[in-house]
């Protein structure tokens, strides 16, 4: 996992309170400043920092009194406060992976007790920092630094997730990584986070994702870039001297790979230099098929000592994504399927090994069975259904346990949002 500590903001990140906060704030301000009308954007702009600070930003001369009235009006809406979909599952998964969890919130301690503790997820958190615990609050670094002090955490091991610019600025000030909870954010405009999470499920996805191998192997990145320049140059150039130069650049890329990998140059050329025209990623589709027992269909590959994978392969030049998924499922599993929805779109080298010297876009598509049965063929020797706890040896260049885990999650979530790199 990339981080040992994941710290959350509360309002708008863990619990859905934005509309309630704005509504109750508007009612409080009507009592304090009856002649002034505040817009939704003005009120939204102060959600995410301590209440008195927000009221001062709005020009309220007696923020203490206004905060009291705000809290009184909030009590009328406590029954409407709810946890965002997917949060409880996320917290449980993080704890199972021994990630230390924390909260850094602009709420006061008594507000946390009234608005949050009754929701049944407080037990997942090791440390909770409220507005009472530091002299300075978000967007300053102090609240997150206080968390690090109590938790014994190093900056590089902390990811702070929140839904406002104040949360992201707090993380930056504390020199920790930041993640924007897009599911609770009103607008991403001008918010520069390290990560953008469209749903809670994406947090686990990105924490488990392998680092970009091209950062670890710069020689491979250089070889791929040289080949890209050469291929584009050969496609567009008309001058014979330019063509000679681009051919030489292509040869240098092959020689670099041969030197670092020990693979013969002829073999590298057949894998690496067999395309013409502007270079684009290859596309690989994988058919994700479940049975009524919540087991996933895998086929045993004939080319890899009996390892297993989802039915799939390269997209043919004359096929659409859906058509290719149907074709591969039929050829490898004997099943006629209906491709129902996309689960994820991935950059292969960030998930699978070994690393390829070219880019591959992998698309995982959940399919429904129409009819059919397995027939042994040139690519697969048999098929079977597996639970996640009893997976067979996998063809990891095609699919990993993490990718199959994502398929199980999507299958069991009727409101699944597509995850893409």
UniProtKB/TrEMBL annotation:
Gene3D superfamilies membership: 6.10.250.1120, HAD superfamily/HAD-like, Nucleoside Triphosphate Pyrophosphohydrolase, Putative phosphatase, domain 2
Gene Ontology terms for molecular function: hydrolase activity
Keyword Hydrolase among record annotations: yes
The entry's keywords: Hydrolase
Top-rank taxon, per record: Bacteria
Domain Nudix hydrolase: 280-410
Matching InterPro entries: HAD-like_hydrolase_sf, HAD-like_sf, HAD-SF_hydro_IA, HAD_2, HAD_sf, NUDIX_hydrolase-like_dom_sf, NUDIX_hydrolase_dom, PGP-like_dom2
PROSITE patterns, per the entry: NUDIX
Signal peptide: none
Pfam families the UniProt entry points to: HAD_2 (PF13419), NUDIX (PF00293), Nudix_N (PF12535)
Alphabetical list of NCBIfam families matching this protein: HAD-SF-IA-v1
PANTHER family: PHOSPHOGLYCOLATE PHOSPHATASE, PYROPHOSPHATASE PPAX
Protein name: HAD superfamily hydrolase (TIGR01549 family)
Organism: Pectinatus haikarae
């Amino acid at each position: 996992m990339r981080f040992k500590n994941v710290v959350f903001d509360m309002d708008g990140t863990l619990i859905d309170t934005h509309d309630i906060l704005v509504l109750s704030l508007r009612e409080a301000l009507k009592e304090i400043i009856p002649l002034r009308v505040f817009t939704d954007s003005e009120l939204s702009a102060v959600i995410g920092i301590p209440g008195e600070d927000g009221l001062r930003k709005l020009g309220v001369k007696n923020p203490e009194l206004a905060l009291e009235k705000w809290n009184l009006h909030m009590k009328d809406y406590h029954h409407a406060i709810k946890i965002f979909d997917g949060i409880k599952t996320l917290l449980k998964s993080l704890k199972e992976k021994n990630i230390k969890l924390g909260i850094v919130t602009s709420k006061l301690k008594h507000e946390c007790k009234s608005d949050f503790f009754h929701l049944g997820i407080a037990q997942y958190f090791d440390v909770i920092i409220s507005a009472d615990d530091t002299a300075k609050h978000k967007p300053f670094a102090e609240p997150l630094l206080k968390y690090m002090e109590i938790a014994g955490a190093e900056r590089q091991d902390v990811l702070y997730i929140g839904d406002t610019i104040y949360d992201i600025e707090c993380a930056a000030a504390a020199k920790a990584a930041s993640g924007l909870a897009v599911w609770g954010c009103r607008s991403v405009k001008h918010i520069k986070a390290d990560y953008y999470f469209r749903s809670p499920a994406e947090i686990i996805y990105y924490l488990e994702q392998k680092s970009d191998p091209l950062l670890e192997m710069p020689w491979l990145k250089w070889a791929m870039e040289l080949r890209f320049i050469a291929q584009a140059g050969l496609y567009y150039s008309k001058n014979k001297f330019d063509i000679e130069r681009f051919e030489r650049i292509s040869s240098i890329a092959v020689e670099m790979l041969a030197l670092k990998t020990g693979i013969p140059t002829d073999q590298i050329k057949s894998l690496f230099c067999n395309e013409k025209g502007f270079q684009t990623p290859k596309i690989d589709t994988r058919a994700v098929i479940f049975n009524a027992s919540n087991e996933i269909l895998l086929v045993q590959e004939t080319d890899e000592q009996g390892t297993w994978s989802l039915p799939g392969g390269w997209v043919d030049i004359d096929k659409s994504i859906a058509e290719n998924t149907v074709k591969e499922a039929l050829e490898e599993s004997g099943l006629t399927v209906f491709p129902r929805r996309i689960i994820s779109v991935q950059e292969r080298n960030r998930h699978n090994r070994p690393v390829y010297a070219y880019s591959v876009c992998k698309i995982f598509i959940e399919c429904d069975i129409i009819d059919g049965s397995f027939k042994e063929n040139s690519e697969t020797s048999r098929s079977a259904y597996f639970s996640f706890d009893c997976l067979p040896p996998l063809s990891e260049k095609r699919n990993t346990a993490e990718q199959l885990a994502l398929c199980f999650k999507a299958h069991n979530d009727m409101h699944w949002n597509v995850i893409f790199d």
